[in-house]
């Protein structure tokens, strides 16, 4: 069994108290590896070295192009080790190999490549001011950034946080989830070989409840960038007020997927499936509320159930698997409780809902892909983020009703609209209170385009130039140009 170590100040380290946690393969419950359970002392050490690397180190003083070269080397290493990284990502999280091979690993590399070349987006402005003066803005790094990320896309989340932070000249302490840290520790070993200056990237592993509050509250941290549940995000916000640190939050969702009768039915069916069953529904942008126009409702639902029943459930490392296990026994239990609640609240369970019964699923955290019909938007299963493969199907009769239902939620991460009438699609997109609208598609993420939430789905944006700017602070430099060098303020008191 491999024993991983965490990474502080350019060295691998087992942690001051030498305690460990184990990583379990969700497909068969085998223990794959151990990794350090960091203490608060370790977290503070990581923050201190990141502080030193920022305040006294060369990193923030390098040119954007020089930092970009490091990011390119990271991307190159990811591409070279793509096969091994996708294997470990799939084995440790239950993500299918098809997904990690075609989505997670290439996305991770391309995010580093994108942010390696964004120097032009870090430019400032010359501002015309009503005085004989030159006013300039410039973007400077924020300082020490703490990042906390979830287990559903460990390597992609790592890239989304680390690449823009480094491109701007910040130093970072990152804490992955204890349920998804092995791939990140593998990648950290690759980054170590590239020779980043010490203390620029630090990765601590352990229990989020213990380490997270320290990262959020520690006054030596200038910014906290968190991706995870809305409840933990609220707590992070409260703790960050300790030193009014900058906050960046990517939180939960309950995204509506609106299917109008005039859509391309085949495309909408495929899109609806991907939106709720990719990654076993463990996606912040999961289209977990499927709003179907009444005239096609019955036909659409029937096809959806048939297609869902054909999904091949299995070990995440089997390349032909469509649908792997959930991340952990505990998480599966939470999802099963929501299914129970759906039944109690009288939604119709029309597909799945159970642990699959075949012998091969006795070990592992498998759950059938699940569909509820006749759901009212006020029901628990339509309001709470389940973060699993549970779809709530809701019927609507008019465009206005669809928009009303779609917006009737505390979340505002994403929405999907399926129709051939592009004027209607555009009108609906404008009225949806969400950060991303996908029209006739699902899951279009691009390094170049901003991603983030409205309402309780978050604060700030990831990716794109806006995502880069999150990791900067803006300085105004004002140079007086009064003839003779004496502006009004210098003679104010005579
Ligand atoms: P979570 O329970 O909120 O955990 C997220 C991270 O916070 C993990 O690293 C976790 O560590 C840590 N953590 C746990 N308790 C903490 C505390 N009290 N203080 C500080 N940190 C703490 O979320 P999750 O279950 O991992 O992931 C699912 C959630 O993430 C969903 O709500 C999903 O929508 C959201 N998500 C959002 C986006 C987005 O971009 N908007 C993307 C992906 C996921 P441990 O796991 O080690 O305990
Ligand atoms: Mg959790």
Explained architecture:
With 494 residues, the protein is an alpha/beta fold. It has 2 domains: 2-251 and 457-477, Aldehyde Dehydrogenase, Chain A, domain 1; 256-439, Aldehyde Dehydrogenase, Chain A, domain 2 (3-Layer(aba) Sandwich), CATH 3.40.309. It has helices at 40-55, 64-80, 82-93, 97-116, 154-167, 182-194, 208-217, 230-240, 265-277, 294-309, 329-344, 380-383, 399-407, 422-431, 464-469, 488-491, and strands spanning 2-3, 6-8, 11-13, 20-24, 31-36, 126-127, 133-141, 144-148, 171-175, 201-203, 223-227, 246-250, 256-259, 289-293, 348-351, 370-373, 390-396, 411-412, 414-418, 436-439, 454-455, 458-459, 472-480. The strands form 6 sheets. It has a 7-stranded mixed β-sheet, sandwiched between helices. Strands 10-9-8-11-12-22 form a 6-stranded mixed β-sheet, sandwiched between helices. Strand 8 (144-148), helix 5 and strand 9 (171-175) form a beta-alpha-beta unit. Helix 2 packs across helix 6 and helix 7 (208-217) runs parallel beside helix 8 (230-240). The longest helix is centred in the first third of the chain and has 20 residues, at 97-116. It is globular and about 80 Å long. NADP nicotinamide-adenine-dinucleotide phosphate binds at residues 148-152, 175, 177-179, 207-209, 212-213, 227-229, 232, 235-236, 250-253, 284, 385, 387, 413, 453, 458.
Q: Quick one: overall form?
A: globular
Query: Helix share of residues?
Result: 25-40%
Uncertain parts: none
Average per-residue pLDDT, rounded, comes to: 98
Say how many strands there are: 23
- What is the CATH topology classification name of the largest domain? Aldehyde Dehydrogenase, Chain A, domain 1
CATH architecture of the largest domain: 3-Layer(aba) Sandwich
**Which cofactor or ligand species appear?**
NADP nicotinamide-adenine-dinucleotide phosphate, magnesium ion
Largest beta sheet: strand ordering: 15-16-17-14-13-19-20
Note the main sheet.
7 strands, mixed
* Cα radius of gyration in angstroms: 24 Å
Oligomer: single chain
What is the domain total for the residues? Answer: 2
CATH H-level superfamily of the largest domain? Aldehyde Dehydrogenase, Chain A, domain 1
In terms of DSSP E residues, the strand content is: 15-25%
SS-derived structural category: alpha/beta
Figure out the total of helices. Answer: 16
In CATH's first tier, which class of the largest domain applies? Alpha Beta
- Euclidean distance between termini CA atoms: 79 Å
């Amino acid at each position: 069994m491999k024993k991983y170590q965490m990474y502080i100040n350019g060295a691998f380290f087992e942690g001051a108290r030498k305690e460990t946690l184990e990583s379990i393969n969700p497909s068969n419950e085998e223990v794959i590896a151990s990794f350090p359970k960091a203490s608060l002392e370790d977290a503070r050490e990581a923050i201190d070295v990141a502080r030193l690397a920022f305040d006294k180190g060369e990193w923030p003083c390098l040119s954007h192009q020089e930092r970009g070269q490091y990011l390119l080397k990271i991307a190159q290493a990811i591409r070279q080790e793509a096969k091994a990284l996708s294997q470990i990502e799939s084995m440790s999280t239950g993500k299918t190999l098809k997904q990690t091979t075609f989505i997670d690993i290439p996305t991770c590399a391309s995010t580093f490549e994108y942010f390696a070349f964004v120097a032009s987006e870090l430019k400032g402005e010359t501002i015309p001011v009503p005085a004989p003066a030159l006013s300039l803005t410039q973007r400077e790094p924020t300082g020490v950034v703490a990042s906390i990320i979830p287990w559903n896309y460990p390597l992609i989340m790592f890239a989304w946080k680390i690449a823009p932070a480094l491109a701007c000249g910040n130093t970072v302490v990152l804490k992955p989830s204890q349920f998804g840290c092995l791939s990140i520790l593998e990648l950290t070993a690759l980054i170590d070989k590239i020779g980043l200056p010490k203390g620029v990237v630090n990765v601590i592993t352990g229990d989020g409840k213990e380490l997270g509050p320290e990262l959020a509250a520690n006054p030596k941290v200038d910014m906290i960038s968190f991706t995870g549940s809305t409840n933990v995000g609220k707590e992070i916000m409260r703790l960050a007020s300790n030193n009014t640190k900058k906050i960046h939050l990517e939180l939960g969702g309950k995204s509506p997927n609106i299917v109008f009768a005039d859509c391309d039915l085949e495309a909408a069916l495929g899109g609806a499936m991907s939106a709720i069953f990719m990654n076993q529904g463990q996606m912040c942008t999961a289209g977990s509320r499927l709003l179907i126009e009444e005239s096609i409702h019955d036909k659409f639902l029937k096809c959806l159930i048939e297609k869902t029943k054909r999904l091949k459930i299995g070990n995440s490392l089997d390349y032909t698997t469509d649908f792997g296990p959930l991340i952990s026994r505990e998480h599966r239990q939470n999802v099963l409780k929501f299914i129970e609640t759906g039944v109690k609240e009288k939604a119709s369970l029309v597909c799945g809902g159970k642990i699959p019964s075949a012998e091969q699923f006795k070990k592992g955290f498998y759950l059938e892909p699940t569909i509820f019909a006749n759901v009212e938007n006020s029901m628990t299963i339509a309001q709470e983020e389940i973060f699993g493969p549970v779809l709530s199907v809701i019927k609507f009769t008019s465009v206005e009703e669809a928009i009303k239902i779609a917006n009737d939620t505390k979340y505002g991460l994403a929405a999907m609209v399926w129709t051939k009438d592009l004027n209607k699609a555009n009108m609906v997109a404008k009225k949806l209170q969400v950060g991303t609208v996908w029209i006739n598609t699902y899951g279009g993420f691009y390094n170049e385009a901003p991603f983030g939430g409205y309402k309780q789905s978050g604060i700030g944006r990831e990716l794109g130039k806006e995502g880069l700017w999150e990791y900067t602070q803006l300085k105004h430099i004002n140079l007086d140009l009064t003839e003779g060098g004496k502006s009004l303020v210098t003679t104010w008191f005579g």
